[in-house]
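A quick aside before the break. I want you to see a complete sequence-to-structure record at least once, exactly as it would be stored in a machine-readable document. Don't worry about memorizing anything.
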Amino acid sequence: MKTFTNRCNLIIITMIVIAMAINLSPKLVFAQEFKTTVDHESAIKSFIQTKNWDDTVEINLLKIDGLFVRNWLYHQLKLQKDIKVDKIGGTGIIKIAPAIIKLSPGNLESIIDECYQEALSLENRYSKDVKGSLLASCADLYGDDLLDFTMGRDITLTENDSCHKALPFCTGTIYSFPAGVNSGSAQSGPNYGCLSTRPNPVWYFLKIEDAGNITIKMQGVRTSGGSLDIDFALWGPYANPITPCTSQLTANCSGSGCPNNTSNPNFYPSGNLHDCSFDGSAIEYAHITNGVTGQYYILLITNYANAPGNITFEKIAGNGTTDCTILPPAATTNSPICVGETIELHAANAPGAQYQWSGPAGFISNQQNPTI
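That is the input. The structure line, written in tokens, reads:
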């Protein structure tokens, strides 16, 4: 094995040996010596929030592009013996200070920069599957909430960010929604199959109307117009969309034993895990095979890229259909109106529906068509 002079490379080698021992990725190797930049402060100034180089530094991880870089930087800094690293609330900010004695001038910034540059190097060097395995090992070391912290989860939350808050959809409609950014990791409990990481989760469920096969296309597009790497897991069938959350979101495979449907298209279903993909693509295809009328399926979509954009999904193939009566009834109003006129609120008829309106000045109504 080649000897490295960079302190973070030495730590990385140790971590990779550990990863090999637990069968995360037996093919990880280093091909060349890594050299850090000379101007340490310039390289890391974009995410330094406050600094006193002889005492403490605060790093805002949310200003660093790439979830892997954020988490691996945190991991390497935690392994440094000369410094101590503390989280500041759920803000994505870490505080770094000398562990025992005052460091010599320039040492603190040098440590941060070396570890940051190595994280960048690994980001570009390794595949998505390898990086996912390494992130999973970080979660084992520091807890499942590490990804939430490095994304500042309690800063941004989405409406349907957990299984029990899944929203209904039907394949007769094209859906498009803003991709969550820095909105945390999917909840613990389910067997996520091929998904090594689950950042920025959104949950949906559908109900089969006409039995048969259904193919759902999902596509992520960045706000800038580029490709947005997304992933998904699909569970089912179930008698309803509530009870399965989360103890029944299971599979007969786990971890690396659950392949992407792109590499092994005939693998799924595996237990309740009906389909899954962790492919490095902006377009994914979920397949429901032999759907039965009245059964439900639960779909998780994640924004692996953690970049702003939109995710669109729709049915593109199959003889099966979904039941659109599970969607909330459409709501309309007679707005705009003039001062002094009555606002009329209208909701479409839906069998067995209950209605709940709320608005300014404490307005609440459970009528189908209230007025204000």
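Two observations worth writing down. Confidence is low (pLDDT under 50) at residues 1-7, 9-38. The first helix runs from residue 7 to 21. We'll return to this after the break.
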